[in-house]
Amino acid sequence: MEERKDEISPRMRSILIGLYGDWVWMDHRIKTVSAEIEEISRTEEKRVHVMTVPGIVPMISTAMVAAIGKGEAFERRRDFAAWVALIPRQYSTGERTVLGRTTKCGSRYLRMLFVQAAKIIMMQPHRWPGFNFGDWLAHACGHMHRSKAAVALTNKLARMAWSILKEKTAFDAPRDQVSIDV
User: Fold this and answer.
1) Residues in a beta bridge with 86
2) What are the sequence ranges of the domains in the chain?
3) Rounded distance, CA 96 to CA 41, Å?
4) In the beta sheet, which residues pair with residue 31?
5) pTM: predicted TM-score of the whole model, two decimal places
6) Beta-carbon neighbour count of residue 61 at 10 Å?
7) Does 97 score more than 90 pLDDT?
8) In terms of C-beta distances under 8 Å and separation of at least 24 residues, what long-range contacts does 30-35 make, across chains too?
9) Alpha helices in the chain (DSSP H)
10) pLDDT score, position 175
11) Is 82 in a helix, a strand, or coil?
12) What is the pLDDT of residues 12-52, one digit of tens each?
């Protein structure tokens, strides 16, 4: 700013300095709130279990637990996925069922977070074999458009996260493992 003093008017300079100050304050505020969210997600057992699902980070686990608590409002994983709007719209007449596009109603914020998690996982195909759904994901990416596979993975992640929250177990834990009481 000092080098271009003759090119910028004093009024414009004061506006730019004020905007820069706002930007620095907002950046600091984002870091502070992000640190608080990470601390909350590390200290509460429900959120720790949900974060064992691949792609689920503190922001997603905190948003999910804040939105649905222990997940008791939903009977099945499909009900939670439908609430997040990750289930295709179903048109049924008689004996014929036709699945349509994924609905856009539901929790937009959670859907956005889960979709971002799925896209991050899809960007790292070298890690897929380490997941219990790695073979499924490789097959899905080979047979579907990448965006459609991302939404299918999003649905799978949301269902797994709800199950883990409800059953109080960690991801990939054996079925016969005793549930952890919170």
Assistant:
1) none
2) 1-43, 45-167
3) 45
4) none
5) 0.71
6) 27
7) no
8) 34/59
9) 10-43, 45-50, 58-68, 77-83, 108-122, 134-143, 146-167
10) 43
11) helix
12) 888 999 999 999 999 999 999 989 888 887 777 777 888 88
